[in-house]
Design a protein that fits this description.
about 160 residues; alpha+beta; Nuclear Transport Factor 2, Chain: A; six-stranded mixed sheet; 3 helices
């Protein structure tokens, strides 16, 4: 009887250990799938930013900001909230109604994701004309984003800090 209970105990512990290993491997695979999906959604956000910057679509330029976002631009007070960001955008476009973005490229690196939040560092290059008669202007800048995963799995910018 004693030998049977020892064998049963060993079998139980071995099964328990195998279950833990299998569960942790499954969790790792789930985390990897989630991380891959997050990276794909963040890349979509980047592509949307490029597309909407080139077209200067007012609605599109607001779509990648979270409702409670904060944007820091050089020489300006921070825009706190999506409505404040939109107001600043509208003021800029009223000041330069003939603005034309000729080219825009961004490259993000060092994307770190943790618990529905991400941060990233980006470099941007653009060429634009403030009016049809103005000469083209080149601009290079860096940007730091804090991103927030939305309930639908998409990502939005929660904070953006731009430097030149």
């Amino acid at each position: 009887m004693r030998r049977t209970s020892v064998l049963v105990t060993i079998a139980f512990l071995a099964g328990f250990a195998l279950g833990l290993v299998a569960r942790s491997a499954g969790m790792g695979m789930l985390q990897q799938r989630t991380h891959t999906a997050d990276l794909a959604a963040i890349e979509k956000l980047h592509q949307d930013e490029i597309r909407f910057t080139l077209s200067q679509d007012p609605k599109g330029l607001m779509d990648f900001w979270a409702e409670d976002a904060v944007r820091f631009m050089p020489g300006s007070p921070p825009d706190v909230g999506k409505q404040a960001i939109q107001a600043t955008n509208e003021k800029f476009h009223a000041q330069y109604p003939g603005l034309k973005v000729l080219s825009y490229a961004s490259k993000f690196k060092d994307v770190q994701i943790e618990d529905g939040w991400a941060c990233e560092l980006g470099e941007h290059e653009s060429q634009f004309k403030l009016s049809p008669e103005a000469p083209p202007t080149n601009w290079k800048g860096k940007e730091f984003h804090v991103l927030k995963r939305q309930s639908d799995g998409s990502w939005k910018v929660a904070a953006g800090l731009v430097s030149q």
